[in-house]
Write a structure and sequence with these properties.
71% of the residues lie in helices and 0% in strands. The protein has 153 residues and is an all-alpha fold.
Length: 153
Amino acid sequence: MHTTSTLSLSPPAGRHTRPHAVLLGACAALFGLRVVAQAVQFVQPSPHLPPFDAFQGSALPYTFLLPAQVLILALMLGVTASVAQGRHRPRPSRGRVLAGLGALYLAGSLLRLILGFTLPGLGPWFHAWIPGVLHVVLAGFVLVLADRHLHAA
């Protein structure tokens, strides 16, 4: 009787994929909820949601902001699907770049929120907490993707 065994130094397929895909999907879903909620408030305001201006974190006109948000959401969903389906090829060098950028993005986003909550005299950009929190979510997406590149390779 002859058996053949294969020695594999890499983890089984999907071992690192699921947690990353779930976290990426959660970040995309949270961002998608923001995009939809703001669109609802623009088209037909609902008393069950924060007012439209609460979603607006900059002076960028909504006619430019909405397409940018839809593009970002489409990219997030595409990356999430690629990771979930095992088609996403990890690259440690890309992970290091994403980790650095994600850390800077997260630090800036948290600083914005902290300053907005502690210093009342700052401009409206600092006090728009919904966009501030969603930037933390976007930074989290970048950091989870960085982790996927760094630890699934």
